[in-house]
Records
---
Amino acid sequence: MSSTKENFNFASAKVDGENDEDYNPFERRQIRKANSSIGTLIHLVKGSLGTGILAMPFAFKTGGLVFGILGTVLVALIYVHCIHLLVGTSQKACKRSRIPVLGFAETAENVFANGPFGIRKFASIAKAYIDYILLLISYFSVCVYLVFISTTLQDVINYELQIDWSTRIYILLTTCAVALITQVRELKYLVPFSLIANSSIIVVFIITLFYIFKKPVTLSNLHFWPELENLPSFFGTVVYAIEGIGIVLPVENKMKQPQHFLQTFGVANFAIGFITVMYNIVGFFGYATYGEDTKGSVTLNLPTDELLAKSTQILAAFAILLTLGLYYYVPMEILWKKIGHKIPERRHNVAQIGIRLAIVVAMMGLALTVPKLEPFIGFVGSIGSATLALLIPTTLDTVYRWPSGFGWMKWRLVKNVVLWAFGLFILVVGTYFSLMDIIALYE
């Protein structure tokens, strides 16, 4: 988190007569419990290598085996480059404004406040925009997880009890548990939940790989290249699966040696390289194993008549349920900072309970409207992850460098425009096709 005050005047932060080179923000960070480079690497891998990896076989189903590998590598390269843009811009902004650390939204505010004169008035809007996008993607993710948990319970319980309850019934039941766990407000109380959830996900991942490699791999009747209309869904799913941009600056800001983050063989490159290899392995072999029957989460393809597979599905749903408290923590912190001061202090407790419950109920209503996992993943990946991971980092780098910091023939500007166009493609076209898939569910 940023150490700056909310109303800090970024434009006047620099001291007259002092050169940027005189200030090293890394030396002025006061961190009580700094993370080592290895610890930061683990956090960064954990931020991306979550349940999204279980959606990679579905991404390969829409993209094809060959294009799936190439497309995943392409997305990973673009994503790690955008990490470099975001962190690099934040570090340079800290140096220019003589501030030790800046968070995601604070970086945007700083860059715009010190940018071209015509856009400086949008600094506060840029900060608010990122906050609201983080809120949007976080709450939409709750919908994805509600549908995932409910679909998993439906597959297992309906089979075991020989009943035919719809996904919507399980969404209603799951919401009761989610409403309870999202009432936990203190981060320290969520640590045990996260430990259990992380351990469970590791077990789920190992058992899922066991089932994937258990069957002989055959490439017959599988497609190698995508149909044109499936491209947005593929990119949206991969971006959603691999993207963890929201935690990048928080973990970099907590590093003991932050200069290691952006090195050629540093934390960012190594983490995303490792994740890319894992995603390609699971995506390729998951689709090769289950073919056109591949579902939004590969755990839903595990056999329902085997105890190990059923326990894995339940364990995956349980892990997601426990993780929801942590996913809820960050957006609620952002939201409460915006509205908490408007509520009388004596009513803070009641207000917190009511707001947390109301948002869960609203997300339940959305999940009831679209009780299918696949369109939700593409939708969230397109509308949220593309904005945070692609559009915002390239925009901030462009504004910071304007007008003469783009190098020979303004190649950096051309590169940023291309990346921005790719992000816009995922945002607009991916959102459109995801909405069409959602609408098709009711036709």
---
Amino acid sequence: MLTEKSYVCEVHFKENDILIYDETILNDGTVIKIKRIIPTLKAVAVPSIFMNLSFYLTEHTIKRKPPLERSINSDKKRFKPSQA
């Protein structure tokens, strides 16, 4: 049962699901950000990062390079000049 003293680990949520700052817009259009003492989750936040599950069952924070970049890097590794 959840209470006001319950908490969750932020490791399991995407970075954009966590509210770290409060923002206020002044009359002149200036935006002021104030860091929260205790970060909170957005109302629609759902845990989606689980370290110990199979790769296809969780979202990943590490992104692969685009195919073209991967192929360029692999060509460099593959065609190193031999040392004489």
